[in-house]
Amino acid sequence: SFHSSHFSRECSICLSENPLLRATLTECGHICCLACAQQFALNGRKFKCPTCQKQTGFVVMVEEKEEKEESIEVKSGDMGEMSEKKRRMDETTEDESNKEKSYFKAKKTRQAKKEIFKDTTDENKEIEENKNN
Questions:
Q1: Distance CA 82, CA 124 (A)
Q2: What pTM does this model have?
Q3: HEC string of the chain?
Q4: Is residue 130 part of a domain?
Q5: Residue 83 domain-assigned?
Q6: Residues 75, 120: one domain?
Q7: C-beta neighbour count of 121 within 10 angstroms
Q8: What spans are recorded as compositionally biased (Basic and acidic residues) (predicted)?
Q9: Which of 25, 53, 103, 121 has the greatest number of C-beta atoms within 10 Å?
């Protein structure tokens, strides 16, 4: 089964809201600032996670900054793709709408034929009854 998690930039040890350098604890995935991870690891490569108490090590997290030009190109490219998808959706919706109209028109025609036939049948019954009387 699929589940999502919410990640915070806050250090789970010193509660610094937005540490510049962060570390991920290797065994449990908890995040803390690099200074706290280094402090806990002074006695050796493994230490207990202060959040869950698992024996762990850590790796330094490196964040790459996104280039503005790349994001603009991607966004404009996405817009072209999005307008193409929207055009196809509009065509599909129009096709479905036309199918619906045809269905209801045919249904009304069938109902009208039934009414006409019913009226004719009722008239024939009346004529037969009058003949027999």
A1: 63
A2: 0.40
A3: CCCCCCCCCCCCCCCCCCCCCEEEECCCCCEEEHHHHHHHHHHCCCEECCCCCCEECEEEECCCCCCHHHHHHHHHHHHHHHHHHHHHHHHHHHHHHHHHHHHHHHHHHHHHHHHHHHHHHHHHHHHHHHHHC
A4: no
A5: yes
A6: yes
A7: 10
A8: 71-103, 112-133
A9: 25
Q: Which two tokens stand for residue 21?
A: 């350098």
Q: What is the pLDDT along the chain (133 residues), one digit of tens a residue?
A: 555 555 677 888 888 888 888 888 888 888 888 888 888 777 677 788 888 999 888 888 877 766 554 444 455 555 555 555 556 656 655 665 566 666 556 666 667 666 666 655 566 666 667 666 6
Question: What are the φ/ψ torsions at residue 80 (nearest 5 degrees)?
Answer: -60, -45
Domain range enclosing 89: 64-124
Task: Look at residue 103 and tell me if it is in a domain.
Answer: yes
Residue 75 lies in a domain: yes
**51 and 76, same domain (yes or no):** no
